[in-house]
TrEMBL record:
Gene name, Swiss-Prot/TrEMBL: folD
Domain Tetrahydrofolate dehydrogenase/cyclohydrolase catalytic: 7-122
Protein name, entry field: Bifunctional protein FolD
Record organism: Roseibium aestuarii
Lineage: Bacteria, Pseudomonadati, Pseudomonadota, Alphaproteobacteria, Hyphomicrobiales
Known partners and oligomeric status: Homodimer.
Keyword hit for Acetylation: no
Amino acid sequence: MTQATLIDGKAIAASVREEIGRRAQELQAATGKRPGLAVVLVGEDPASQVYVRSKDRTANELGFHSVKHTLPADTAEADLLALIETLNTDPDIHGILVQLPLPGHIDESKVLRLIRPEKDVDGFHPVNVGLLNAGERDHALVPCTPHGSLILLKRTLGADLSGKTAVVVGRSNIVGKPMASLLLAESCTVTIAHSRTRNLPDVIRAADIVVAAVGRPEMIRGEWIGKGATVIDVGINRLPAPELGEGKTRLVGDVAFDECLDHVGAITPVPGGVGPMTIVMLMANTLTAARRQLGLPEDKPIF
Ligand SMILES: NC(=O)C1=CN([C@@H]2O[C@H](COP(=O)(O)OP(=O)(O)OC[C@H]3O[C@@H](n4cnc5c(N)ncnc54)[C@H](OP(=O)(O)O)[C@@H]3O)[C@@H](O)[C@H]2O)C=CC1
Ligand SMILES: Nc1nc(=O)c2c([nH]1)NC[C@@H]1CN(c3ccc(C(=O)N[C@@H](CCC(=O)O)C(=O)O)cc3)C=[N+]21
């Protein structure tokens, strides 16, 4: 019986974070400027509040300039757009992140299109999406969760992923599509699966690399995953956990983790896998955006 390697996202995120901290200090020594991040939250979704707090805290810990704008859930679209215009022209702000999802009365696409592509640290603006898909990712800002997932894969399998068979389950603009695009750019043979995919277990079984971004707790069973495969579980699902006490919850991924341990090669846990990488890649993107806006040469890519 083999024993799967646990991909320690928390530890890898900590090492990337140190590197970003060093680079931010260099930037400040050279220019007197700190990378500046603005996070905008509309409404009071508790999960979003947790993420936004964590982004703000990490930015502060790394010595970034960080501002948080919390707007009421009934904010008019025009007011949100006006705030983005202000941030677009603020020279101390290099990165803008609007926490998703937005309340239903606001046109998400309109908001994302207004953010200056140079400041779009989520990588959701059509210009950044286009650059990534055109094979120009070095000039883009790359979405944080897929980018962090790719780093986990490279730290586990080595820098060269070419020729590997990868299945991405999920086709959202936030995770699935950009993940597939990054893996294709690494010369993997990529399949994108979704809710209409037939024989999903068989599709997944053929993969060297499985990335799960579905949002359904433990939907992907251990027996669907081939021997020795590497599994990146992006899913974050909060389930009630009465065994931990009344009203308590616990997080699980999209993959049945325990069922994988005796035969997969490596797997990310939830929590402690992709989540911590997402936050640190947001800081990496903010630093990249700051250097570009200050006219400095690109830093080495982070692996
Ligand atoms: N760790 C992190 O940092 C982050 C984690 N997440 C988590 O990742 C997960 C996915 O997020 P996101 O991409 O935004 O989710 P979406 O809901 O936008 O997309 C889910 C995708 O899963 C597909 N899907 C749904 N049901 C099935 C099924 N039965 N079989 C196969 N595919 C299915 C959908 O297919 P179709 O298109 O056909 O409907 C869709 O493409 C969530 O748990 C989210 O919380 C998200 C962002 C960051
Ligand atoms: N514009 C925008 N950009 C995003 O990047 C974005 C977003 N909107 N909306 C929501 C999703 C979700 N997301 C996560 C970030 C960190 C963790 C994270 O740190 N997770 C910890 C656990 C956190 C906990 O305990 O709740 C972990 O997995 O170990 C998870 C999920 C970013 N998102």
